[in-house]
Prior knowledge:
The protein has 171 residues and is mainly alpha-helical. It has 8 helices and no strands. Helix 3 packs across helix 4 (68-92). The longest helix is centred in the middle third of the chain and has 25 residues, at 68-92. It is globular. The chain starts with 15 loop residues before the first helix and ends with a helix.
Amino acid sequence: MFDCSIVPSAQGGLSNRAMKQWVLLIDKIKSDLVAAMRANDEVGKLVLRSLLSAMNYYKIELQKELSDEDAARVISKEVKKHKESIEMFKKAGRLELVEKEQKEMNVLSAYLPKQISREEVEKIIKAKSEELKAKNELNMGNLMKTVMGELREKADGKIVKEIVDQIFKTT
């Protein structure tokens, strides 16, 4: 999709050729919505329309065009909502709704960056902990802030918190 040989022009922006090849995440979602409409994919249409709506609300809130990072943040929030819904429906015994939410979450997850493994998260947290000399629970907030800034869309916040708690309980 993206040509790695593209180099910014001397004026600091992308050349015309590069601009034509550069596809924003939002544009990809819009084109996928059109494809879902043509394929009569009801789940895809529903999810992508609601996602574009959420992105539009976020764009209005920020009062600027969304970058790919902003779009990924919105997608991440939507995935989190679906995960919470799945948990609630499981507790209530509503398996048909669990399946529906799972399908919708799978559509959204396709647009998120690849999640890193728990082991990789643990390595990063331990390295940051040593770097910040975070040895007790007083430094836990600062460590969480630093790690989540680095891993924002690459790792689930719950996993990061579990690992940080585990590190401070063993020290």
